[in-house]
Write a structure and sequence with these properties.
It is built from 8 helices and 11 strands. It is of the alpha/beta class. The protein folds into 2 domains: 122 residues, Response regulator (Rossmann fold, 3-Layer(aba) Sandwich), CATH 3.40.50.2300; 99 residues, Orthogonal Bundle (Arc Repressor Mutant, subunit A). Strands 2-1-3-4-5 form a 5-stranded parallel beta sheet, with helices on both faces. The protein is globular and about 50 Å long.
């Protein structure tokens, strides 16, 4: 059974989500603050963490950083903060997804399953049109042929898959790939990597059907 760590200081939300997610087949352990969450993490094995930003002690950002450093768990932020700064901060420190309150419980379940699949926790292969992404092997294949993505290209593809159907701004993409590049990735570099990724993924890079440009907003993978 998939085990989730829910870190949220609102008792009503904890009760509602615990009941719903339990009915959906998940095992839930809840914590109200950072220290309580770290205590559970040191004693139990979890598949994914759901974090609020505002906690009784500490905050979701520092907890996310600790989880990524010490436990390598996928993290989804649950927060009422819908501003771009909060979103970018979450992605910059390694969050795998971000969903703003109020949200529909079934949307959350869909996001959880998607992240578990993409991070290899569900031992699945992600399909994107005629491309298969194996998150355990870290490969992208078309009809059995390896597309030979670089580490940064692969990371960029995962960011799109983690946020499938969502428009991602260039700033969000820059923040998401900065850490793996090992150095600052500027806007021109991002343009180059999107071009390279399209050349490997798209049948016609000049008329992309996978990584679509949303004029004035950013990019989207349906």
């Amino acid at each position: 059974m998939t085990k989730l760590l829910l870190v949220e200081d609102d008792a009503a939300i904890v009760e509602t989500l615990t009941d719903f997610l339990t009915r959906e087949g998940f095992s839930i352990q809840s914590a109200y603050g950072q220290q309580e969450a770290l205590t559970y993490l040191s004693k139990e094995v979890f598949d994914l963490a759901l974090l609020d930003i505002a906690l009784r002690d500490g905050n979701g950002y520092s907890l996310c950083a600790a989880i990524k450093t010490d436990y390598s768990l996928p993290v989804i932020f649950l927060t009422a903060s819908g501003d771009e700064y909060s979103t970018l901060t979450g992605f910059a420190i390694g969050a795998d997804d971000y969903i703003a309150k109020p949200f529909r419980p079934r949307e959350l379940v869909s996001r959880i399953k998607n992240i578990l699949r993409l991070t290899g926790k569900s031992r699945g292969v992600v399909k994107l049109m005629d491309i298969e992404v194996d998150t355990l092997k870290g490969t992208a294949m078309r009809h059995g042929k390896d597309l030979c993505l670089s580490a940064l290209e692969y990371r960029l593809l995962l960011v799109f898959l983690n946020n499938r159907g969502m428009v991602l701004s260039r700033t969000q993409l820059l923040n998401a790939i900065w850490d793996i590049a090992g150095e600052f990735v500027n806007d021109n570099t991002l343009t180059v990597y999107i071009k390279r990724l399209r050349e490997k993924l798209e049948k016609n890079p000049q008329a992309p059907t996978i990584i679509k440009t949303v004029r004035g907003l950013g990019y989207k993978v349906d």
